[in-house]
Specification:
The chain is of the alpha/beta class. The chain is built from 8 helices and 8 strands. Helix 1 runs parallel beside helix 2, helix 1 packs across helix 6 and helix 2 runs antiparallel to helix 6. The structure holds zinc ion.
Length: 255
């Protein structure tokens, strides 16, 4: 997997779970736009509506939450995602709880994704104030635990069975905002869509030109690591359900 540049052909179901509006577009918007154009079905679940994201004393939390939900929906349309779910948890106050984990298990069992994108729960470098937001850390951990073992084991949240929600086994994580990338996705063809989606978050962008320059510089640098014009980087983790494949993987990783 090391240094792999991925190309994906078959249609798939992709669930993205992030803490705030705009995390998705920064983290993986180029990859999602590319996959959407290849036929992937994409759903976003945004845990908060980002209502604390302002310094304007005249802006109420409710007004900003509504604005940011609208901005995120517009951005999702640019990317080609089919649905945006807002869990409306309090911005900046996310905490790990079994109840919150259960809400994520419900989304996983409803949409039944093959691939799940989220914040990298292993990222503890604390070298960037945007990436190391406490909400990002909590969501990364919750998504990991909700996916495995909770969503695929019928004994977790058994009430879901009565609602007709069967256990579900996703096959792979793509963690964005990672300090241990192992997968680079070429986003040259969708960089403009990523920037267009980011521009939708107008309440968060003081200077669109600077934002655009930052995106070109940042994702250009990541692209150059693999000889590409622009790339998004991820840490990819496969979830093995077949014992034989799991053993094969373990043997390979012990070498
Ligand atoms: Zn965020």
């Amino acid at each position: 997997m090391e240094g792999q540049v991925t190309k994906r052909k078959e249609p798939l179901r992709v669930l993205v779970i992030s803490a705030h509006p705009d995390d998705v577009d920064f983290g993986c918007g180029g990859t999602l736009a590319k996959w959407a154009r290849e036929g992937a079905e994409i759903v976003y679940t945004i845990c908060t509506s980002g209502e604390k994201g302002t310094d304007d004393p005249s802006m109420t939390n409710l007004a900003l939450a509504l604005t940011r939900e609208k901005e995120q929906r517009a951005a999702a349309e640019v990317i080609g995602a089919k649905e945006v779910i807002f869990l409306r948890k309090p911005d900046g106050e996310l905490q790990y709880s079994l109840e919150f984990r259960g809400e994520l298990v419900r989304v996983i069992r409803q949409f039944r994704p093959g691939i799940i994108f989220t914040h990298d729960p292993a990222n503890r470098a604390f070298d960037n104030q945007y990436i190391f937001h406490a909400d990002h850390r909590v969501v990364g951990e919750l998504v990991f635990d909700a996916t495995y073992p909770a969503a695929l084991n019928r004994n977790y949240y058994p009430g879901h069975l009565a609602e007709g929600l069967a256990p579900h086994a996703a096959s792979e994580f793509y963690f964005f905002a990672t300090s241990q990338p192992d997968t680079w996705v070429d986003i040259e063809s969708t960089l403009e869509l990523k920037i267009k989606a980011l521009r939708c978050h107008a309440s968060q962008i003081k200077d669109p030109k600077t934002m655009e320059e930052l995106v070109r510089t940042w994702f250009g640098a990541w692209g150059r690591e693999k000889g590409l014009a622009f790339a998004e980087r991820f840490r990819r983790v496969q979830i093995f359900h077949d014992p034989a494949k799991r053993l094969q993987y373990l043997k390979k990783s012990l070498r």
